[in-house]
């Protein structure tokens, strides 16, 4: 938490790693920006599953007492020496470490903060930037999806998953979603999934093999982890590419690499930070995302909106699989 002369604000912080109940309100002061920094009055904050990993301590990105959060939008209040790409009064957004976004005002390094185009509102930016940039590098960089490839996407009604469905469909892929309920399956179909598999008498891999006439999925985007990893390998084509990019159900644990030979599996484990850690990468990837949003390829869906002070409830709902689309927090103005 920042100290010293500054602007009074409110944050949701944790004093120790643990459950959603650890999130509590705290008064903060956002100090005047130093060299290379900017001070932002935040209007909308994005909630991401990464915030859950940070809150529990699974990811070592948050050292209590501290606020979680990697993504927000708002207005620049003032800028420090050496910042030339931003100006006071400008609408901006960011989706990058360090954590600390669950706050009404924030002073932070300006390098990865980007100006927002006029046509995108703050809430859409906070809901879509991190998830959309993730979808961009997964579909265009980690695996360059080609027309007619079969793509299996888990959690297709969620934040990242829904955008993956929309974008992969527009890229000409055959999209299969894998979700937990018929209600979410309907959302996935509306987002562009040609087929959706849900838990039933047949296993996920049997359903995928039936749908693909025994071919399997050419690429699988799997952010469920522990519960899905083995099923994903079984549902792959030969050769196939398994992109394991998250673990909402728990850590995958160890895996025998030799077993991947059964299908000549390519395995990727991409990290958001490595695709978005320079101003040049952020500029390129966000420009691509903004084009996709503006053209209608990707529609950012805000499924849940909470007050910042209700961040614990937002986390509880996300972990309970009750959310669809993106979740944002709104600070008191
Ligand atoms: P989501 O909106 O996708 O929410 C998580 C979803 O995961 C749930 O709605 C649920 O969908 C599914 N799920 C399956 N099993 C479980 C479980 N046991 N507990 C909770 N959820 C489960 O979240 P986000 O869009 O914020 O993030 C999606 C994933 O992408 C996360 O795993 C995150 O870590 C990952 N990610 C990875 C990045 C990277 O760089 N590697 C960057 C950004 C995100 P359903 O009911 O349909 O199964």
TrEMBL record:
Protein name: Enoyl reductase (ER) domain-containing protein
Gene Ontology cellular component list: cytosol
Molecular function in Gene Ontology: mRNA 3'-UTR AU-rich region binding; NADPH binding; quinone reductase (NADPH) activity
Keyword Calcium attached: no
Start and end residues of each Enoyl reductase (ER) domain: 18-329
Record organism: Hwanghaeella grinnelliae
Keyword NADP recorded: yes
Keywords, in A-Z order: NADP, Oxidoreductase
């Amino acid at each position: 938490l920042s100290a010293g002369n500054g602007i009074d604000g409110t944050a949701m912080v944790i004093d120790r790693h643990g459950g959603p109940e650890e999130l509590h309100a705290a008064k903060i002061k956002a100090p005047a920006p130093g060299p290379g920094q900017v001070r932002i009055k935040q209007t909308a904050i994005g909630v991401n599953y990464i915030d859950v990993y940070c809150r529990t301590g699974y990811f070592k990105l948050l050292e209590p007492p501290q606020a979680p959060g990697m993504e927000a939008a708002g207005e620049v209040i003032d800028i420090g020496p050496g910042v030339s790409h931003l100006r006071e009064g400008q609408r901006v957004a960011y989706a990058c470490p360090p954590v600390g976004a669950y706050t009404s005002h924030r002073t932070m390094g300006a390098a990865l903060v980007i100006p927002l185009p006029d046509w995108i509102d703050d809430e859409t930016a906070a809901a879509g930037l991190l998830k959309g940039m993730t979808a961009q590098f997964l579909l265009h960089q980690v695996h360059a999806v080609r027309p007619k490839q079969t793509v299996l996407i888990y959690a297709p009604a969620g934040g990242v998953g829904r955008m993956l469905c929309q974008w992969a469909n527009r890229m000409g892929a055959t999209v299969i979603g894998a979700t937990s309920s018929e209600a979410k399956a309907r959302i996935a179909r509306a987002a562009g999934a040609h087929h959706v598999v849900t838990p039933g008498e047949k296993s996920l891999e049997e359903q995928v093999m039936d749908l693909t006439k025994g071919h399997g999925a050419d690429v699988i985007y799997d952010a469920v982890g522990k519960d899905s990893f083995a099923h994903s390998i079984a549902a792959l084509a030969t050769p196939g590419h398994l992109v394991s990019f998250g673990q909402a159900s728990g850590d995958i644990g160890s895996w025998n690499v030799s077993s991947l030979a059964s299908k000549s599996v390519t395995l990727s484990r991409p990290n958001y930070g490595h695709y978005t850690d320079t101003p040049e990468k952020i500029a390129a990837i966000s420009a691509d995302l903004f084009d996709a949003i503006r053209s209608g390829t990707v529609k950012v869906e805000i499924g849940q909106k909470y007050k910042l002070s209700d961040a614990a409830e937002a986390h509880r709902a996300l972990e309970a699989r009750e959310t669809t689309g993106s979740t944002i927090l709104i600070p008191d103005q």
